[in-house]
Amino acid sequence: MLKERRLVIISGLSGAGKTAALHSLEDIGFYCIDNLPLGILLHFSDYLTQQPDGILNNVAVVIDSRNDVPPTIKDLPSFISTLNDKGVKPELFFIDATTETLLRRYSATRRKHPASSKRLAISEAIEYERSLMGPLSEKSDLYLDTSELNVHQLRERFKKIVTGRQDGTLTLQFYSFGYKYGIPKDADFVFDVRNLPNPHWEEDLRELTGLDTAVKNFLDSEDMASKMFKDITGFLVNWLENFELDDRSYVTVAIGCTGGRHRSVYMAEKLADYFKHQTVLVSHRDHQ
Fold it and tell me: pLDDT category, 115, cuts 50, 70, 90?
């Protein structure tokens, strides 16, 4: 019997990084197609299931608002339901970014927005596409905001997410960040550790990060850090089972401190180690 095919469907806003995400999967051996017409998707899935085991087991496609003739992007959720019955395992990843970020990227690249044919200003085209794609983001298996990521960070994070996923398991992502650079929008839970003692004010620790032993030892010796860790683990242990019962594939837990360099990194790593019996990923946005 053939193994279940894995089909990653990448969608989201134009300029948010869908192509970079697709390229990252191509780098790790996925067969990739950009701008697949939605009307072809079911026929394509039939083609995949006819291939011998080991051939085209991992495929990624981009399907987005460029599908503006029936069936349109609004029909994608119903197509995904059909795929589940065809021996193909679809995962919908939605790539997003703030309007300000998208405007800046389009200004830098001077590329044409897909909705510009509707004679809309670039800002209007972005908001039109956001209103069109919004309902799809709510149905995604993974929502990823790239506003604070450069193209290299996006590609590396996407590789980790996809390669770290194991069949039938909940993937738990711990993601450290600095509040001074903004809260990540793709987090399911956000925990604030700014009330913990700050290694930044220790001269010999200032230039280090939460990955360094000296910083770990400093925070391990603080009762507040131990209590915070115990409270967060207790909360997650109590509630993660509900996410699994709801057929969630990914849960992102963001840990924030002021600069994203010491306390948040320390706590994210400590939590990842605690839950290492599950499928766990850990990323640090602002620690360098």
Answer: confident
Distance CA 272, CA 172 (A): 8
Is-above-0.85 flag for pTM?
no
101, 12 Cβ separation under 8 angstroms? no
Within the chain, strands assigned E span 5-12, 31-33, 58-62, 88-96, 142-145, 171-178, 189-192, 250-257, 279-284
Mean pLDDT (whole number) for 185-202: 95
User: Is the Cα dihedral 191, 239, 285, 123 positive or negative?
Assistant: negative
User: Residue 154 pLDDT more than 80?
Assistant: yes
Residue 282 near residue 272 (C-beta atoms within 8 A): yes
Is the Cβ–Cβ distance between 166 and 278 less than 8 Å?
A: no
User: Using N-to-C axis directions, what is the helix angle for 263-274 and 223-245, rounded to 10°?
Assistant: 50
Helix, coil or strand: residue 82: helix
CA–CA separation, 79 vs 83, rounded Å?
A: 6
Residue ranges of domains in the chain, CATH in brackets: 5-164 (3.40.50.300), 171-284 (no CATH)
Query: What mean pLDDT, rounded, does the chain reach?
Result: 90
pLDDT surpassing 60 at residue 1: no
Helix axes 263-274, 213-220, angle to 10 degrees: 80
**Quick one: the chain helix, strand, coil %, rounded to 5?**
45, 20, 35
Closest Cα partner for 95 from 44, 45, 42, 34? 34
Residue 54 φ/ψ region, left for φ over 0, alpha for ψ in the -120 to 50 degree band, beta for the rest: left
